[in-house]
Amino acid sequence: MTRFGIIGGGLMGHGIAVALARAGHRVVVYDEDPAALASLDERIARALERCGVPPGDVGAVTARVTAARSLSDMSSCVDAVVEAVSERLDVKHQVLEAWEATVPPVLPVWSTTSVLPLTDVAKGMRHPQRLVGVHWWNPAYLVPLVEVAPGAETDHRFVQEACDVLNGMGRTTVRLHRDVPGFIGNRLQFALVREALHLLEQEVCDPVTIDTVVRASLGLRWSAVGPMENADFIGLDLTRNILSSLAPHLSAAVAFPALDEPLDAGQRGRASGGGLLTWPPGRGEEVAQRLEDGIRRNLGAQ
Q1: What is the pLDDT of residue 216?
Q2: With bands split at pLDDT 50, 70 and 90, how would you rate the model's confidence at 1?
Q3: CA distance 76 to 107
Q4: Which of 6, 47, 83, 108 is the most buried if burial means most Cβ atoms within 10 Å?
C-alpha cells in the first residue's frame, strides 16, 4: 500500500499526510475548503521543519503530497483512504457515502475518529467491512502511537493490513480487541480531565496547580513506567488498598460546571483569550512549541 488518499486537510489530515510522506508513501489530499488546500504545502513544510527534517530533504517529502480537486479525482489514484473530517457522525456519513460511490468495495478506509464508536461511523456504508479505526495522536508527525480498532462488521484482514503498514512505518501500533468509544488513550486521558474538573468544582485548588502537579510528577513518571507496570511494581495489594480508599471520592460526573461556567460567559479557551486559564497574545504559539519540544525530548530519551 503506497498511495493514500486523505479526506480532510485540517489539523489531523495534514499531520497524517506528513507522517505518511516521510515514510515514503504518496499522498493525495482532498478538502472541500479551498483555503485548506491552498495552505497545505506551507503547513506541511512547517511541520517538516518542526520534525527536524534537513532543509535539503524537505522538497523530496513535500513532492509526495498533492492536492485533489474532487473526491473522484482522488479516488482514481489511491490504494487506501484516510477519513479525517470533523468529529460529527452526520459529516462522516455524508463523506463516506459520497466517497464509496466512486471506488471498488475492496479499497480500505481508515477513520481517524478519536471518540466516536467505529460501528456508528460505519452505519450507512455500502461495505462496512473495510472500515478500520486508525487513531493518530496530534501532532501525528511526532507522536508515534497509533491505535487500531475494528468495528462490529470489520473484516479483520483490513485491521491486520493497517497494522502491518503502520508497523512498517516504525509507528508504535496498538490493536484493540473490539470497538469502544474513545479507544484507549482518550478514555484514560479524559478520566484524568474529569477528576481534575472535580477538584476545581470542590475548590481544592486552581487550574495552574493541577497542571503543575501533573507536569512535575505524573508526566515525568508515565513517560517511563505505565500505570499497569507501576501497579505491579508497588504491589497489587497496595494498589487495591489505595483504590478502595480513593474510589468512593472520585468523580463519576456526566455534567461539568467547571466547563459550563466559562463557556456560558463566552470563554472557550485559547481561541477566545480565556477559559480555565488566561491566554494573552502569543501564549498559544508558546504552548504549541513547548508541546512539540517536550515530545521530541521524551522521544530522544527513550
Answers
A1: 96
A2: low
A3: 11
A4: 6
For residue 144, is it within any domain? yes
Domain CATH for 135: 3.40.50.720
92: pLDDT strictly greater than 80:
yes
Longest dimension (CA), the chain: 60
C-alpha cell at 284: 498559544
Tell me which residue range forms the domain holding 193.
185-225+252-301
CATH of the domain at 275: 1.10.1040.10
What integer pLDDT is reported at residue 231 of this predicted model?
Answer: 97
Query: Which residue type, as a one-letter code, is found at position 31?
Result: D
pLDDT average, residue stretch 31-56: 90
290, part of any domain? yes
The residue to which cell 479505526 is assigned: 133
SS3 149: strand
For residue 231, being part of any structural domain is answered with no
Q: Do residues 58 and 100 share a domain? A: yes
Say if residue 197 is in the same domain as residue 133: no
Show the DSSP H helices in the chain as ranges: 11-22, 34-38, 40-50, 55-62, 71-75, 89-100, 118-122, 156-168, 185-201, 207-213, 219-222, 227-234, 236-246, 257-264, 283-301
Kindly report the average pLDDT of the chain as a whole number: 94
Q: Which of 143, 175, 207 is the last residue of a domain?
A: 175
Cα 175 from Cα 173, distance rounded (Å): 7
Quick: pLDDT tens for 285-299. Answer: 999 999 999 998 888
Q: How many domains does the chain have?
A: 2
- Reduce the DSSP state of residue 294 to 3 states and report it: helix
Q: How far is CA 154 from CA 20, 94, 157, in A?
A: 23, 19, 8
